[in-house]
Design goal:
The protein has a domain at 32-210 and 276-309. Helix 1 packs across helix 2 (122-143) and helix 3 runs antiparallel to helix 6. The strands form three sheets. Strands 1, 2, 3, 4 and 5 form a five-stranded antiparallel sheet that branches. It has a four-stranded antiparallel sheet with strand order 6-7-11-10. It has a two-stranded antiparallel sheet with strand order 8-9. It is elongated and about 105 Å long. It contains six helices and eleven strands. Helix content is 41%, strand content 22%. The protein is an alpha+beta fold.
Length: 315
């Protein structure tokens, strides 16, 4: 079926009438989009609340196994409640860490004393705070200001996208968000009894998994009275082992580097990495990724109707 205008209009006039009607059509489309975005904001709030619930300090928490693959170097578990580890028992069998007399391994147990600082995962603290900030942004967008003000809603969605993206990156563990081990290793009074000297216990989050990096350290200042059983007896700058068998390949990626650890220059003798996937954190990551994409979709649609296609292709 075709519709004809009567009396018929000249092509030039028809084009002029269409051009004059276009701003009105766009204004109505923009108003419709802004109204529909209020429903999207409600859906986004629900997803963020689910993320907040997964990060909440609810008992009994998540018990995660910390065990090295294909070796007996590390065997144990930790229990995470919210952003803090409340229980933990790890057995170490490292070549550079002789066990106590009469024991098959070195045991590290998280202290249950009230004055213990505990092991707080700062990345999860940051993720939880960013999720709460995102919820505040949604509430401001919903209950404050004019919901039909395109500029206001666009700026709020832009901020929401940045906040959710930062939370996701924090959970992914990219860059330096995981902290330097020589600055953020667990304090000795976190364990009962305290660990042996020159042992670094560092926990972080990477790709939604709990990552434990254990290091045994040695001071760069040589002992004045080296033991007869010392592993590196220097002869003109070379160890006895190197002189007999040739130089050894680096045992890890930090071999030879010097770090300032607790006011002392140290080198890393042995390094072990253990990773344990956390189902709750995997769920948070999946939800944040979906929420980030949804906010981007809303921003792109709003940008087009506002006539800002050429300003910024990505947030």
């Amino acid at each position: 079926m075709a519709t004809w205008a009567y009396p018929p209009l000249a092509p030039e006039q028809l084009s002029k009438e269409a051009d004059s009607a276009l701003p009105l059509i766009k204004a109505r489309e923009l108003e419709w989009l802004l109204r529909s975005l209020q429903e999207s904001l409600a859906s986004l709030k629900e997803g963020l609340q689910e993320c907040a619930a997964l990060l909440a300090p609810d008992e009994p928490g998540s018990t995660l196994v910390l065990s090295s693959l294909r070796s007996e170097s590390v065997k144990g578990f930790v229990t995470r409640v919210g952003t803090k580890l409340v229980k933990g028992d790890v057995q170490l069998r490292l070549a550079s860490l002789p066990p106590p007399r009469g024991a098959p391994s070195t045991r590290l147990t998280l202290s249950q004393h009230a004055d213990s600082p505990g092991l707080v995962l700062q990345q999860l603290v940051a993720v939880r705070n960013l999720v709460n900030q995102s919820l505040d942004i949604v509430d401001v967008s919903t209950y404050t200001g004019n919901p039909l003000d395109a500029g206001f809603i666009f700026s709020q969605l832009h901020l929401l996208h940045e906040t959710i993206s930062e939370a996701r990156q924090m959970l992914k563990g990219d860059g330096d968000v995981r902290g330097n081990w020589w600055e953020t290793s667990a304090a000795d009074n976190t364990f009962d009894p305290p660990p042996p000297p020159h042992v670094s216990f560092h926990l972080s989050i990477a790709d939604s998994a709990l990552v434990l990096l254990l290091r045994t350290l040695e001071s760069t200042i040589p002992s004045q009275a080296p033991s007869a059983f010392a592993t590196d007896i220097s002869l003109t700058g070379f160890s006895l082992r190197d002189r007999i068998f040739g130089s050894r390949q680096a045992a890890h990626d930090e071999a030879g580097e010097v770090f300032m650890w607790r006011g002392e220059e140290v080198r890393v003798r042995e390094k072990v990495r253990v990773e344990s996937q956390d189902p709750s954190l995997m769920a948070v990551m999946a939800k944040l990724t979906a929420l980030e994409h949804e906010v981007m979709r809303c921003v792109d649609a709003l940008r087009v109707l506002m006539g800002n296609e050429d300003t910024e292709s990505e947030i």
